[in-house]
Predict the 3D structure of the following.
Amino acid sequence: MIFSVIITSYKEPTTIQEAISQILEPNLGFFSKNAELIITAPDEETLNAADKAINKYNLQNYKLIKDKGIGKPAALNLAAQSAKGRILFFTDGDMYISENAISEMLPLFNDEEVGGVSGHPVSLDARTNMFGYFSHLFCEAAHKKRTKEPETPMSGYLYAVRNIPSLFPIPEEMRAEDAYLSVKIKSMGFKTAYAPEAFAFVYFPKSLDDWLKQKKRSLGGNVQMSKFTAKSPQNHRKARSLGEDLQMMFFPLTFAANLTELIYSIALYPLRLYLWVLIYRIHWQNKYKSGMWDRIETSKY
């Protein structure tokens, strides 16, 4: 089996079907012999919707896995344990990828030193409101950073890893499994790469509460990772930190295309500082939530 595509989902019966079709339509020839599709979800509604979508293609190489609902890391562990592919692709059930995404990422593994490849998240939100603007800003900042430094941690929206023995399981309490796998791949002597034309189309949070909730999970998970990499701090360097934010402190100002966006960019600075205060307080007090599913309702479409 050349590759396995793993979609993790939670209470997303209305979006999982498009996620599946965007993967199968352009790659159906591969899936007939050389690839498999694995869907994980803790709820029957999502799994039934996925099964219905897959049956339209008469696909044989697929698995539906009902996880225990204790979080994405646990779901990924179940899927990885079941997967037969030499390369494992990961994406989510509340978004979709471009038709060329897999074909853009797969050839990068021809380099035997590459252990992981990141896709390119693209916001589907409008730039005309503050949080939509923030989503475009952060996607572009990540794109620039990965273009300049391919070993920047992979994006959890779309990434692929070589199916390396002992890469899994992920600690179930881990909040940023994409960053954890990026660091672990590096610690095993591999490098990560970036496929800028492999797009992951995503809706982002549209309220302050959801924005903080998502960022505390993703950025906070990077800080949390020091718990798991303390014995090899040299491998932790690429995790996100306040210091890395400061390296791009002027980017929001240069990204703004008009006066309204400039005001949004200026407003981001105190919000981002407040976010980091929350994250470090959680870290110092060791009050991390488990890796359990935590829906960001305003990012659903």
The domain at 3-299 is CATH 3.90.550.10 (Spore Coat Polysaccharide Biosynthesis Protein SpsA; Chain A). Confidence is low (pLDDT under 50) at residues 230-238. The first helix runs from residue 16 to 24. Residues 94 and 142 are 20 Å apart (CA to CA).
